[in-house]
Amino acid sequence: xxxxxxxxxxxxxxxxxDIKFKSIEQCxxxxxxxxxINLRLKRVSKTRHDIEGNITFHVxxxxxIKVLVEISIWGNGGWRNNFYKITRNTACFESSxxxxxxxxxxxxxxxxxxxxxxxxxxxxxxxNAKEININNIPLYLVPSELKLNIIHIRKSDxxxxxxxxxxxxxKVNLL
Length: 175
What we know:
Elements: H1 3-12, E1 15-26, E2 35-43, E3 49-57, E4 65-75, E5 78-88, H2 99-109, E6 120-128, E7 145-154, E8 159-174
Antiparallel strand pairs: 1-8, 2-3, 3-6, 4-5, 4-7, 7-8
């Protein structure tokens, strides 16, 4: 089945996206460090990888911070940058492409569910990467390898507070 048919089938059938985390690393421009996000993938078994690490907020995280997600797609031997961009005008959101990722990070780190999230140090432990399946990927994105740069920006002066890069492989599972 070619990729076009898989995407079309996703509209017609009961399908879901399967996301496999390949890497988590710091961006080249990490920002000023007000939000220090140090996450990594830890291989627990042949079939399980956990997301673990520390997140330190030196400032509260709420409506004064926006989130920019720059999605690049792998193709023709390299990354095609800025394939798709998402901007959320607040770091506290409940619905978007990466809301489930944020929800799981908060759940596994002891962060409060309400916003703003107070400054402090949060430890992410034993977050099974398979628990994070993004089921609301726009259907015009074809199954592929994606690189997501998740950038937090202070709205008042457009200062980059943090940036983390996550590489995932996405595919449609037809049920």
